[in-house]
């Protein structure tokens, strides 16, 4: 489409449910909800009132004095942005008086503005320029010689946008966007009167300030004061492709804006259901990896992993893979091969991989990277509620009164959702943070958690049991909800009321004072709508699944399920981790989470696929590694996942991958896994994909191609061609046909089609006859399984304990600017904010080891050793250290163990007993395993 | 006791159901293995249990007996 500009109605819509009010604007009748501004009512009536400081993503400010109107019966010329409508109001937006006033205002603005429109990067996309035309400005009587701001210097420090204060009109839109939309409050207006100017922090450069580079200020700026460098370099874009971000599980909608075929910028889509016009530094700016020179664009093969790669054409590569896979099967049995799907690929890409495995390989050896993140969510929520997905839409948080964040760091991991959450917290909702580390959310501008419970790593279940114990023993149970909606409550209540689950008994285990646990339980049960949001700090434990069930029990016992503002909400890590699970990527489930042992379900698939299907589960990723080492598993196809870097106990993974007869990697770059592969099949970035992603709120969004596949082939075509080369007919003309097949086989998707998504923008599954436009909130009248099931959750300590030899517990996480193993973000300017992974350590733990801030330290666990630079931080509790895993060199997973969740095999990344010692690589005279592992790492950074 | 991957996993599963009565615990373990384990892992566990005998968690042994019984 040509460049798409959403209408700007000037001020936000008033809260839902307000009674209607009828007014007339320039004689045009319009009915709007009470609380609507005159400016917005006029826009809805089709009358555009000139404005500069007003925009509908921000509260009215009333500073520019351009949106003045006349109202019958009222004196003066009120600003229409700050004047709410009243019944029967008669508004005039045009008169000679208003014209003169507006021209006077514009004259003053322009008298202190560079007259460089023809060479300005925003020429043609500037509201100041537009308004000068709209108000009919023809002259500036004051001249341009007086005091002005025209010589102020441009701040180029941010890698993605420039700040040119000479073009600023002090409308405060950027300052307000930073506060109201993003919630960071990094910007301010410094000085008074004529000296007023926008400032990042206390007069700092943008790059040195608290700015998180979300781009909200850039989007809000009506001039070229805050301008993307890409627009400065390439010019104003002239066409738009609406698509979906490929970073975290929030799944933001974007307008990819191009100039010809060149992508100029990504602008968050105001119509996007997940993000409603907001974005973060990754989605907004960090897309340069898609065209990075490190991309491999041709298939490559080699007999042995010590051989040089040999470029081949697609047909040769496909035939090679198919022949080798068949050879392995004939020598070692049909179960000797398998595949791994990717949460970075579309639903359609993923669906065809699991179909290839099940129908062409003839087994269930398919798994997905959700195995190492949210597989316990799928298990726990399926057991208790009946569906492997979160219960709410993101909007729901606006109705929460108590927000409990457990094992998640939303401001870093899910920043756009965090902004929604922070807005609600600023409105007065109470916050509880349960996390060993004092994450930013605990105390940030205008937000302070009521309680931060720094739970000891590995003891979540003891804590959730203690919370439930208080609910049950202090008679805080919502009996009406439990009696009507749930089953097995009495047995659970009897278990949870046992003394070993009391806050007093668990205090020593969790490290949380009993009175705090009691206070939080009371707040959660009685504080109104209470919602749980959680992340990998819940799932990546030996009792990850148990903890998910424990949270579900707590929500059911207090009736916090089935309406706005409540629920149990996983903050999913990757853009399509929900979708990859929905598509049947687990070895025990067909698409739609139906067990492979269900004869009726299998028959439906067998009829369409024309192949018999195996009724027993296949191998999960860790089982694939174990089976590779015992020789029963010998061929693996990996779609877009760097298991050699991201999976725990790297030494074990490395040995398993080296033992394979055939490792096929389909990816953008030669990642750590590809270094051990025999075949490399180049994949496509999200900018080339055509399909759908499903985010953490079950929202299915379209991913539309911004450019043709740089590899000459869509990713979904590759498994289809391998299957065909193996003798199984599997072909589609278009990805919409794949979605049609998914819809025909999956009850929760029967109403989904590309056509519907193009019409509605997005839908949240279940989307079927009962819910043709989707289901924002689940389990409203009944649970998917009928009755919600209480399940007893006994606390079992992890096998991973701190000892004299390994006295500290290492836990892991990620930061705002980088994404998972960093394959994408390390190849963008985001390295500006994070050039290396570091080890955060409490001052006391550092002092007793002689470690200073910035010291190089050696981290040793039972499985391996690596080295990092130390950062001394009192956000850590004593006894716990923390790192991220964005760089191969950091080797976080060299030291993590192969302990895993009992139910799902999800690795226990969050608990590794370690020792930390002062020592540089040179001083210790050792070459760490991580260094060795990453020695051949060849990724470059886009500069 | 052996710490092979399948035995370690079986022990981890058994620990979760230790607060159940033995028969219910064995049934839960057997059901979990049936629903989530590849048959080759199940065979490996049966072999391990047969070899290690008395060293194994009694609920795991009982679960294996249940799995054997349903296969007959």
Task: Give an overview of the whole structure.
With 943 residues, chain A is an alpha/beta fold. Chain A has 31 helices and 38 strands. In chain A, the strands form eleven sheets. In chain A, strands 13-12-28-27-26-14-15 form a seven-stranded mixed beta sheet, with helices on one face. Chain A has a six-stranded mixed β-barrel with strand order 33-37-34-36-35-38. The radius of gyration of chain A is 29 Å and the shape is globular. The two termini of chain A are 31 Å apart. The relative contact order of chain A is 0.11. The C terminus of chain A is likely disordered. The model of chain B has no long low-confidence stretch (mean pLDDT 90). Chains A and B meet through helix 22 of A and helix 1, helix 2 and helix 3 of B. Chain A: InterPro entries: 2Fe-2S_ferredoxin-like_sf, 2Fe-2S_ferredoxin-type, 4Fe4S_Fe-S-bd, 4Fe4S_Fe_S_CS, Asp_de-COase-like_dom_sf, Formate_Dh-H_N, Formate_DH_asu, MoPterin_dinucl-bd_dom. Chain A: It is an enzyme of class 1 (oxidoreductase). Chain A: It comes from Saccharopolyspora mangrovi. Chain A: One of its GO terms (molecular function) is formate dehydrogenase (NAD+) activity.
Structural class per helix/strand content of chain A? alpha/beta
Mean pLDDT of chain A: 94
Terminus-to-terminus distance of chain B: 28 Å
Low-pLDDT stretches of chain B: none
Annotation field: number of helices of chain A: 31
Share of helical residues of chain A: 25-40%
Shape of chain B: globular
Shape of chain A: globular
How are the strands of the largest sheet of chain A arranged? 13-12-28-27-26-14-15
What does the main sheet of chain A amount to? 7 strands, mixed
Computed CA radius of gyration of chain B, to the nearest angstrom: 11 Å
Strand tally of chain B: 0
Number of strands of chain A: 38
SSE string of chain B, helices as H and strands as E: HHHH
> Could you report the average pLDDT of chain B, rounded to the nearest whole number?
90
Contiguous runs where pLDDT drops below 50 for at least 5 residues of chain A: 922-928, 930-943
The span between the termini of chain A is 31 Å
In percent, how much strand structure appears in the residues of chain B? under 5%
Number of helical segments with 4 or more residues of chain B? 4
Amount of beta strand of chain A:
15-25%
């Amino acid at each position: 489409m040509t460049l798409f500009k959403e209408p700007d109605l000037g001020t936000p819509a008033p809260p839902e449910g307000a009674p209607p009010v009828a007014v007339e604007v320039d004689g045009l009748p319009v009915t709007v909800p009470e609380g609507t501004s005159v400016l917005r009512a006029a826009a809805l009536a089709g009358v555009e009132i000139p404005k500069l400081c007003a925009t509908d993503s921000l509260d009215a400010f009333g500073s520019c004095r351009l949106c003045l109107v006349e109202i019958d019966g009222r004196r003066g010329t009120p600003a229409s942005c700050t004047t709410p409508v009243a019944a029967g109001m008669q508004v005039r937006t045009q008169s000679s008086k208003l014209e003169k006033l507006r021209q006077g205002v514009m004259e003053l603005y322009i008298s202190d503005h560079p007259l460089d429109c023809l060479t300005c990067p925003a020429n043609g996309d500037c509201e100041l320029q537009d308004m000068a035309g709209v108000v009919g400005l023809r002259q500036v009587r004051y001249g341009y010689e007086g005091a002005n701001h025209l010589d102020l210097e441009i701040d180029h420090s941010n890698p993605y946008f420039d700040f040119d204060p000479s073009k600023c009109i002090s409308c405060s839109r950027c300052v307000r966007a930073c506060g109201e939309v993003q919630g960071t409050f990094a910007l301010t207006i410094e000085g008074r009167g004529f000296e007023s100017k926008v400032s990042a922090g206390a007069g700092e450069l943008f790059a040195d300030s608290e700015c998180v580079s979300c781009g909200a200020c850039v989007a809000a700026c009506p001039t070229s004061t805050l301008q993307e460098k890409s627009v400065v370099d390439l010019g104003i874009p002239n066409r738009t492709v609406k698509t979906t971000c490929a970073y975290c599980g929030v799944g933001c909608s974007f307008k990819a804006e191009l100039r010809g075929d060149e992508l100029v910028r990504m602008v968050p889509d105001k119509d996007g259901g997940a993000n409603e016009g907001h974005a973060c530094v990754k989605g907004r700016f960090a897309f340069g990896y898609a065209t990075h020179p490190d991309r491999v664009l041709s298939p490559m093969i080699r007999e042995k992993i010590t051989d040089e790669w040999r470029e081949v054409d697609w047909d040769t590569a496909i035939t090679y893979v198919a022949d080798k896979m068949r050879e392995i099967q004939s020598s070692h049995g049909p179960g000797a091969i398998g595949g791994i799907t990717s949460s970075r690929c579309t639903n359609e890409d993923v669906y065809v991989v699991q179909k290839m495995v099940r129908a062409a390989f003839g087994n269930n050896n398919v798994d997905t990277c959700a195995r190492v993140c949210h597989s316990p969510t799928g298990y726990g929520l399926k057991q208790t509620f009946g569906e492997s997905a979160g219960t709410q839409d993101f909007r729901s948080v606006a109705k929460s009164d108590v927000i409990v964040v457990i094992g998640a760091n939303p401001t870093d991991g899910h920043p756009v959702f965090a902004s929604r959450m922070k807005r609600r917290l600023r409105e007065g909702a109470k916050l509880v943070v349960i996390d060993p580390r004092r994450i930013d959310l605990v105390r940030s501008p205008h937000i302070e958690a009521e309680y931060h419970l720094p739970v000891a790593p590995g003891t979540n279940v003891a804590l959730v049991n203690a919370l439930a114990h208080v609910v049950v023993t202090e008679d805080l149970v919502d009996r009406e909800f439990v009696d009507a909606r749930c089953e097995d409550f009495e047995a659970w209540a009897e278990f949870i009321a046992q003394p070993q689950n009391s806050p007093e008994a668990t205090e020593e285990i969790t490290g949380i004072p009993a009175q705090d646990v009691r206070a939080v339980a009371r707040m959660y049960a009685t504080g109104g709508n209470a919602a749980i949001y959680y992340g990998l700090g819940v799932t990546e434990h030996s009792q990850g699944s148990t903890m998910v069930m424990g949270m579900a029990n707590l929500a059911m016992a207090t009736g916090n399920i089935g309406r706005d503002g409540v629920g149990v909400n996983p903050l999913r890590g990757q853009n399509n981790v929900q979708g990859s699970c929905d598509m049947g990527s687990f070895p025990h489930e067909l698409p739609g989470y139906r067990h492979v042992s269900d004869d009726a379900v299998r028959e439906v698939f067998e009829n369409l696929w024309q192949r018999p299907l195996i009724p027993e589960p296949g191998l999960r990723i860790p089982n694939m590694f174990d089976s590779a080492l015992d020789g029963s598993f010998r061929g693996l196809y990996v779609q877009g996942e760097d298991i050699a870097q991201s999976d725990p106990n790297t030494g074990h993974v490395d040995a398993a991958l080296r033992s394979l007869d055939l490792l096929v990697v389909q990816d953008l770059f030669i990642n750590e896994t590809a270094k051990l592969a025999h075949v490399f099949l180049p994949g496509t970035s999200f900018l080339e994909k055509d399909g759908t992603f499903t985010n953490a709120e079950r929202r299915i969004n379209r991913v539309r191609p911004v450019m043709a596949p740089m590899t000459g082939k869509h990713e979904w075509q590759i498994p289809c061609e391998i299957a065909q080369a193996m003798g199984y007919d599997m072909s589609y003309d278009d990805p919409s046909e794949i979605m049609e097949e998914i819809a025909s086989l999956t009850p929760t998707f029967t109403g989904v089609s590309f056509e519907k998504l193009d019409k509605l923008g997005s839908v949240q599954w279940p989307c079927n006859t009962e819910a043709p436009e989707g289901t924002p909130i689940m389990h409203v009248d009944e649970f998917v399984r009928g009755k919600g099931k209480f399940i007893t959750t006994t606390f079992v300590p992890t096998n991973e304990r701190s000892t004299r030899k390994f006295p500290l517990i290492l836990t892991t996480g990620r930061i705002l600017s980088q994404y998972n193993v960093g394959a994408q973000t390390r190849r963008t300017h985001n390295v500006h904010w994070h050039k290396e992974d570091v080890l955060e350590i409490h001052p006391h733990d550092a002092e007793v080891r002689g470690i200073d801030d910035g010291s190089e330290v050696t981290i040793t666990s039972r499985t391996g050793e690596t080295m990092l630079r130390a950062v001394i931080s009192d956000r850590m509790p004593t006894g716990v250290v923390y790192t991220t895993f964005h760089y191969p060199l950091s080797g976080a997973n060299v030291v993590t163990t192969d302990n895993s969740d009992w139910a799902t095999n999800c690795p226990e990344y969050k608990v590794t007993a370690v020792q930390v010692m002062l020592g540089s690589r040179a001083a210790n005279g050792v070459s760490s395993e991580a260094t060795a592992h990453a020695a051949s790492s060849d990724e470059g950074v886009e500069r | 006791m052996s710490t092979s991957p399948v035995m370690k996993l079986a022990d981890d599963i058994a620990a979760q159901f230790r607060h159940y009565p033995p028969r219910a615990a064995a049934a839960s373990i057997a059901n979990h293995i049936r629903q989530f384990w590849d048959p080759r892992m199940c065979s490996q566990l049966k072999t391990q249990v047969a070899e290690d005998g008395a060293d194994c968690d009694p609920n795991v042994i009982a679960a294996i007996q249940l799995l054997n019984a349903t296969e007959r």
